[in-house]
Design brief:
A hairpin with a 7-residue loop joins strand 15 and strand 16. The protein is an alpha+beta fold. The chain folds into 2 domains: 31-143, Immunoglobulin-like, CATH 2.60.40; 170-279, Immunoglobulin-like (Sandwich), CATH 2.60.40.1150. The longest helix has 22 residues, at 138-159. It has 2 helices and 19 strands. The strands form 4 sheets. The chain has a 5-stranded mixed beta sheet with strand order 1-9-3-6-5. Strands 10, 12, 13, 14 and 17 form a 5-stranded antiparallel beta sheet that branches. Strands 11-19-18-15-16 form a 5-stranded antiparallel beta sheet, with no helix packed on it. The chain is 15% helix and 44% strand.
């Protein structure tokens, strides 16, 4: 028996060596990059950002982004995780093919005229742009500052509960269906003043629950071909402690009529409220 094994050894060793040599090497982890890009107005992409499934790409803008300002061309390929103030978080759902790109559009308003800029989300064989500081061009910065001045006054007064004498504030209760998921919600109100709109959602964090804050807000309208929009939200306090009640204030886009679904959550698939309604 031993003699037979010795005779087989010269044949077995090359086979084992071949098997080891042919075994696939583990896929190396992606190199996470931090970089800065300049965003410029126009239809062409200002820069390319590298994305990949399983990795988050966080964009930090110089200014808070208005509600609905960020839109991903194909959300089935790259997901917009959320928008909070100046921060945008993205994640590729599937690996993009070589040469493929997904456009991310940022829109500001200069008076009644929209000002748009584009970033291209693309693949890379070994890198992911994990942290990106987005610097606005001079023209975009002026548009963003003008929009912030126009949009902030109503929100500021609602957050401070301030009513100025002579201020004609329109308010209307929205006949919404409210679904509470870990946080109790109630019928919302819409406030309007000087062309600005804010939706206010009353919420209550149950006793014994963890502190809650509205970090993820999604708006879906019933218009054909419409895509979910990531909105921002504010409260008078930073978060609701167990047993506390408060109001979530959401700057509202231009669209006032139609069918809507609004989701306000602490994170994706986290605790929150879902509201649906129609307005003619």
């Amino acid at each position: 028996m031993l003699a037979a094994l010795v005779r087989l050894a010269p044949m077995v060793v090359p086979l084992v060596a071949t098997a080891v040599w042919a075994a696939p090497e583990p896929v190396p982890a992606r190199v996470l990059k931090a970089r800065q890009v300049v965003l410029r107005e126009g239809p062409g992409a200002s820069a390319e950002l590298h994305v990949h499934p399983g990795y988050l790409t966080t964009l930090a803008f110089e200014v808070d982004l208005p509600p609905g300002a960020v839109e991903v061309e194909r959300p089935e390929r790259v997901r917009l995780v959320g928008v909070v103030g100046p921060v945008v978080v993205l994640e590729a759902v599937e690996a993009l093919a070589e040469g493929e790109q997904v456009r991310l559009t940022v829109t500001f308003s200069r008076g009644s005229a929209p000002v748009r800029a584009v970033l291209a989300l693309v693949p890379h064989p070994s890198e992911v742009d994990a942290q990106v500081r987005v610097v606005l061009s001079e023209r975009l910065a002026k548009a963003a500052e003008a929009e912030a001045r126009e949009q902030s006054e109503l929100m500021t007064r609602l957050l401070s509960a301030e009513r100025v004498l002579g201020m004609k504030l329109e308010e209307e209760q929205i006949p919404a269906t409210v679904l509470s998921e870990g946080v109790r919600g109630a019928v919302p109100w819409m406030y309007e003043w000087g062309g600005q709109r804010v939706v206010a959602v009353p919420v209550h964090n149950p006793v014994g629950a963890a502190p809650w804050e509205p970090r993820v807000v999604w708006l879906t309208s019933g218009s054909p071909g419409s895509k979910p929009k990531a909105l921002s939200a504010r409260m008078r306090g930073s978060r609701l402690m167990p047993g506390e009640s408060g109001w979530v204030l959401i700057p509202w886009p231009d669209q006032k009529t139609g069918s809507f679904r609004l989701e306000v959550r602490e994170r994706e698939s986290g605790r929150g409220v879902r509201l649906t309604w129609e307005r003619d």
